[in-house]
C-alpha cells in the first residue's frame, strides 16, 4: 500500500489529494477474521466512505466546515484474508509510518481487534498516553475459545501494554463476569451503560495528556445502528455519541489518533449505520484533528 498516493476508489467526502500536506490520514482496516458471531465488518470502511458523500460538509455541532481540515484518505490496507497475525503486523507497520510522518491516524474498521496493533504503534512513539474506549462490550477477555487474537481481547491487551490505570471504558453493557471483575481489580476505569455523563467527570482528570479514542459502533442501541456484528440492546443514541465526540473536542487533552470499528453494513439494508458512522467521522475530523 502506497499511503502517499491518492486512493483510486471512493474516498471520504472532501478528502484532499496531497498526503504530504495532510494533517490527518483516513485509512481502512477491512478485517473480520476473528469475529465470534456475525462477519461482515470488513465491508465497513468502504460503505462509510460511500455514505459520507451524502453528508453536508458543514457541521452545526462544531460550527466548522470540512474545508478547514486537511485530511487524506489513503484507502484500505490490503490485509490478507483469514490471516489475523499477518494482518495485525501490517496495520502496526502502516500506522507506525503515519506516526513517523506526524500524521493523525483515523482508522475505519473492521472488527475491534484492529485497534490492538494501533495501540502498539502508539506505544512505540509515546511514552505516556491514555485510551478512551467507547463500546457496548468490555473486550477484556484474555482469549476467546482458545484464541488470544480475538475481537473480544483488545482492551485487555491495552491494559497490559500501557497499564490498566490508563484505560477508560464507557458505555459497557456486555461481557463475562470475569471481565467486570478484572475491571474492578486492575485499576482501569470502567463506566457501565452511559457515556456522556461519566465523560464529563473523567475528561478534566485527563487534562494535558495524550489520548487515543477507539469507538465501537455497537455502543449505539441497535435501533440506531443495526448494522454491526454483535448488537446489544440497551445502548446510547446517535445524539449522545455526537455529544461525547464534542465533549472530547472541547476538553483540554491532546487527541493523538482515533478509530471507529465494527460497522457491518450487510445487516442494515436501510444504511442508517454507515450513514451515522460517516457523520461521526466528520465530527472527529472537525473536532479532534490538530487539537492541542
From TrEMBL:
Which residues hold Mn(2+)? 112, 135, 137, 139, 216, 218
Q: Does the keyword Manganese apply?
A: yes
What EC number(s) does the entry state?
3.5.3.11
Q: Which UniProt keywords apply?
A: Hydrolase, Manganese, Metal-binding, Polyamine biosynthesis, Putrescine biosynthesis, Spermidine biosynthesis
Supply one GO BP term: putrescine biosynthetic process from arginine, via agmatine
The kind of enzyme this is, by top-level EC class, is hydrolase
Give the function comment from the record. Answer: Catalyzes the formation of putrescine from agmatine.
NCBIfam families from the UniProt entry: agmatinase
Identify its protein family: Belongs to the arginase family. Agmatinase subfamily.
Task: Name it.
Answer: Agmatinase
Classification from the root reads: Bacteria, Bacillati, Bacillota, Bacilli, Bacillales
Amino acid at each position: 500500500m502506497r499511503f502517499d498516493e491518492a486512493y483510486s476508489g471512493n474516498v471520504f467526502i472532501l478528502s484532499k489529494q496531497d498526503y504530504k500536506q495532510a494533517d490527518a490520514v483516513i485509512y481502512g482496516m477491512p478485517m473480520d477474521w476473528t469475529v465470534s458471531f456475525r462477519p461482515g465488518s470488513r465491508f465497513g470502511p468502504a460503505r462509510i466512505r460511500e455514505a459520507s458523500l451524502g453528508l453536508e460538509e458543514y457541521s452545526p455541532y462544531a460550527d466548522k466546515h470540512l474545508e478547514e481540515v486537511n485530511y487524506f484518505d489513503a484507502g484500505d490496507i490490503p490485509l490478507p484474508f483469514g490471516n489475523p497475525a499477518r494482518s495485525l503486523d501490517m496495520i502496526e507497520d502502516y500506522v507506525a509510518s503515519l506516526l513517523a510522518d506526524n500524521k493523525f491516524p483515523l482508522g475505519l474498521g473492521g472488527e475491534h481487534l484492529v485497534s490492538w496493533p494501533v495501540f502498539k504503534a502508539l506505544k512505540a512513539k509515546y511514552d505516556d498516553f491514555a485510551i478512551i474506549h467507547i463500546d457496548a462490550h468490555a473486550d477484556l477477555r484474555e482469549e476467546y475459545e482458545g484464541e488470544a487474537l480475538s475481537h473480544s481481547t483488545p482492551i485487555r491487551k491495552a491494559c497490559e501494554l500501557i497499564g490498566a490505570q490508563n484505560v477508560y471504558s464507557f458505555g459497557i453493557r456486555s461481557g463475562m463476569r470475569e471481565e467486570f471483575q478484572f475491571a474492578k481489580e486492575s485499576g482501569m476505569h470502567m463506566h457501565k451503560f452511559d457515556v456522556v455523563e461519566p465523560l464529563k467527570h473523567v475528561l478534566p482528570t485527563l487534562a494535558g495528556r495524550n489520548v487515543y479514542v477507539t469507538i465501537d459502533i455497537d455502543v449505539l442501541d441497535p435501533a440506531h445502528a443495526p448494522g454491526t456484528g454483535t448488537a446489544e440492546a440497551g445502548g446510547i443514541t446517535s445524539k449522545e455519541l455526537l455529544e461525547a465526540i464534542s465533549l472530547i473536542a472541547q476538553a483540554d487533552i491532546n487527541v493523538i489518533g482515533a478509530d471507529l470499528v465494527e460497522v457491518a453494513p450487510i445487516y442494515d439494508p436501510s444504511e442508517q449505520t454507515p450513514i451515522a458512522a460517516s457523520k461521526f467521522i466528520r465530527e472527529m475530523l472537525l473536532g479532534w484533528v490538530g487539537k492541542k
